[in-house]
């Protein structure tokens, strides 16, 4: 790998976890480089509008990232949002669209919170967690051929057409997810809900599966 590029990306990742900004010294400590190196990296990122410094010299993410992020799965995000909003209102639950990012990780691409629920789960888009933890990843694994040593929950999801987990991504929170059928070669993705309690698993799972099928139809 390019060490310089690695450190530059690491700075962006640190800033994503600190939306109110950090000093260059703080960034140097967080990334593990000398302050002079951190200063040069920040200046380079500034030149591409990927970060910026305010009047107090605190560094935050820049608007150039918006331009870079806009084309990422644009069709999927555009088509998915109204379907997700409808699912959120029907289930009174937080809805998440998750994409397989690597052999071992998934990332939340879009999160929609319900407007008609007194209490709901809240988390940010962009969060990453293990493929084999949480309903979103298990729904994706269930779409693949069985492998030795896979979790029993994957086989259950394969039989049911949806995955259910509790407390694997967020403590005490249930997740129900279903795979989104997509064209060959597209990354595996799933749509699901996060709730504190499940009163009627079948009804919620049916709503999630219907949303997944609807998205699959719209994307083909």
Automatic annotation (TrEMBL):
One Gene Ontology term from the biological process aspect of the record: negative regulation of DNA-templated transcription
Claim: Transcription is one of the keywords in the record: yes
PROSITE patterns, per database record: HTH_ICLR, ICLR_ED
Domain (HTH iclR-type) ranges: 2-63
InterPro entries tied to this protein: GAF-like_dom_sf, HTH_MetabolicPath_Reg, Tscrpt_reg_IclR_C, Tscrpt_reg_IclR_N, WH-like_DNA-bd_sf, WH_DNA-bd_sf
Pfam families with a match to the protein in the record: HTH_IclR, IclR_C
Domain IclR-ED intervals: 57-220
Keyword field: DNA-binding, Transcription, Transcription regulation
GO molecular function terms attached to this record: DNA binding; DNA-binding transcription factor activity
Domain of life: Bacteria
Protein name: Helix-turn-helix domain-containing protein
High-level lineage: Bacteria, Bacillati, Actinomycetota, Actinomycetes, Mycobacteriales
């Amino acid at each position: 790998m390019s060490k310089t590029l690695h450190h530059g990306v690491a700075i962006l990742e640190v800033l994503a976890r600190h939306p109110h900004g950090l000093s260059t010294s703080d960034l140097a400590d967080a990334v593990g480089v000398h302050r002079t190196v951190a200063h040069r990296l920040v200046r380079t990122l500034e030149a591409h509008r990927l970060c910026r410094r305010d009047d107090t010299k605190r560094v935050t993410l820049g608007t150039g990232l918006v331009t870079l992020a806009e084309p990422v799965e644009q069709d999927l995000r555009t088509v998915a949002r109204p379907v997700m909003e409808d699912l959120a209102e029907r289930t009174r639950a937080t809805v998440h669209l998750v994409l397989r990012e690597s052999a071992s990780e998934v990332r939340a691409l879009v999160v929609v919170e319900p407007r008609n629920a007194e209490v709901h789960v809240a988390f940010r888009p962009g969060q990453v967690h293990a493929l084999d933890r949480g309903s979103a990843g298990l729904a994706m694994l269930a779409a693949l051929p069985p492998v030795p040593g896979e979790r029993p929950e994957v086989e259950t999801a394969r039989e049911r057409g949806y995955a259910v987990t509790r407390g694997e991504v967020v403590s005490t929170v249930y997740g129900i997810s279903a795979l989104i059928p997509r064209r060959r070669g597209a990354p595996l993705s799933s749509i699901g809900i996060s709730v504190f309690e499940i009163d009627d698993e079948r009804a919620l799972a049916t709503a999630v599966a219907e949303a997944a099928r609807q998205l699959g139809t719209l994307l083909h």
